[in-house]
Write a structure and sequence with these properties.
alpha+beta, 16 helices, disordered C terminus, disordered N terminus, four-stranded antiparallel β-sheet, 455 residues, elongated, three-stranded antiparallel β-sheet
Length: 455
């Protein structure tokens, strides 16, 4: 500990100033600043649009590049470079990794990026370098971005104040639960599984009709997670209900398999779906190791016959082996069964981290969605008001056309002269409001525009 000294001057004159303070306070303040930055700007998703800042900035930058789902692709290096230079100055490698994950259909239930090229696979192979791949938005991502042109959300300055970026995206669906999220912050973490979007929409509609609906009622619409790689959840319904009610819990997830008859009493097990986030290549290596070390003596061989779909072949040592016994041993000794932890720790209002139940997350989304719709409606009404005022000025100009032309031609101060007329204020105000309205197409230029140019 050192005593605090107020602004001692080193060397006298105009030298640099330092402040001595207790080490405990200095470390505490700086670590708290780092922790808050990690929680709010890196690791935890926003409950409103379900995105972290890096993902939000990637989608917004791709929108600014006009990479629509129906348009062409752009090099990933160009996209990650724009994101880094304009919105997210934290390294292009991290940005590209985040963008690549949004394009992987085995990681994301509803991909937000349409990738062209090698974006990795379920075997765990790495993504190709950004100079070799290209990307554009998906229709799902466009649904998250729709409304930005109508100021549906607030904007803030980017890191250097040269551009603006949205604080949150005006999501049209509960993306947080649809695609899930995971992250490790300081002193807290989050891990949310993906869900079926149709079930989530049904739950939202029920919550709109019945705002005080119970958590158990929502489980009738959303019975559990829906993983992109499939699998079978073998958790009791009571445990699932408790996890969604408290925001913490776990699900036992097993592979999906079938017993294939080979004739003459022979059979083999065909695994068609593996648990979420399990790399197929490492799973096969583990099974091969179990065979080599004879930890599962009733398993003879494992083969990978996968193409676009997963197809793992497990051959028993003997046709007299019970398939259920074999699979039970594999569940205990390999990743054919795992526990997926649920921890719905999110930024409930964009600022405050909180472990939420499924009802609280859906309620946060619906409240935000209502705000977005109100703001979009107000923006459209404002545009209508502007247009009506312009039309009012055009009508005034048409009814007093001769006087308007006479003033513009012969008066030295036409604007002041128009203002002195009984109808002039309406006409001049309409001209000023016309700047907010898009100019008409073709040669049909309003008289108010012509008069404004003449003034």
């Amino acid at each position: 500990m050192v005593d605090q000294v107020d602004n001692p001057n080193i060397g006298g004159g105009d030298g640099p100033e330092t402040v001595a303070e207790p080490l405990r306070r200095a470390i505490g303040e700086r670590y708290l600043t780092y922790a808050l930055s990690t929680i709010m700007h890196r690791a935890l998703p926003d409950a409103r649009d379900g995105l972290k800042p890096v993902h939000r900035r990637i989608l917004y930058a791709m929108r600014e590049l006009r990479l629509a789902a129906s348009g062409g692709f752009r090099k990933s290096a160009k996209i990650s470079g724009d994101v880094m230079g304009n919105y997210h100055p934290h390294g292009d490698a991290a940005i590209y990794d985040a963008m690549a994950r949004l394009a992987q259909d085995f990681n994301v239930r509803y991909p937000l990026v349409d990738g062209q090229g090698n974006f990795g696979n379920i075997d765990g192979d790495n993504t190709a370098a950004s100079r070799y791949t290209a990307a554009r938005l998906t229709i799902v991502a466009e649904a998250l971005l729709e409304g930005l042109a109508e100021y549906a959300v607030d904007f803030r300055d980017n890191y250097d104040g040269t551009l603006t970026e949205p604080v949150v995206l005006p999501a049209q669906f509960p993306n947080l639960l649809a695609n899930g999220a995971s992250g490790i912050a300081v002193g807290m973490a989050t891990n949310i599984p993906p869900h079926n979007i149709g079930e989530l929409i049904d739950a939202c509609l029920h919550l709109i009709k019945t705002p005080d609906a119970r958590d158990d009622t929502l489980l009738k619409y959303v019975p559990g997670p829906d993983f992109p790689t499939g699998g079978v959840i073998v958790e009791p319904p009571e445990s699932i209900a408790e996890a969604y009610r408290t925001g913490r819990g776990a699900f036992r997830l097993r592979c999906k398999y079938e017993v294939e008859d080979m004739g003459r009493g022979q059979w083999q097990i065909v695994v068609t779906e593996i648990p979420y986030q399990v790399q197929k290549s490492k799973l096969i290596e583990k099974l091969a190791e179990l065979i080599q070390t004879k930890k599962i003596p009733i398993l003879a061989d494992v083969r990978d016959e996968s193409a676009d779909d997963v197809r793992l072949i497990l051959e028993p040592r003997s046709k007299n082996v019970d398939p259920d016994v074999l699979m039970g041993m594999l569940y205990r000794n390999s990743d054919l069964e795992l526990r997926f932890s649920l921890n719905m720790n999110v930024l409930i209002d964009g600022v405050t981290p909180k472990v939420c139940s499924m009802k609280e997350v859906l309620r946060a989304f619906l409240d935000f969605r209502r705000e977005v719709l109100v703001r979009r409606s107000q923006h459209r009404m404002d545009k209508i008001d502007h247009r009506l005022e312009v039309l009012e000025g055009l009508i005034v100009a048409f009814l007093n056309l001769d006087r308007v032309i006479d003033i513009i031609r012969y008066d030295e101060e036409p604007k002041d002269a128009l203002m002195r007329e009984e109808w002039g204020k309406t006409f001049v105000r309409a001209n000023s409001e016309a700047d907010y309205v898009s100019p008409p197409k073709g040669n049909d230029v309003p008289l108010a525009h012509v008069c404004l140019l003449s003034l």
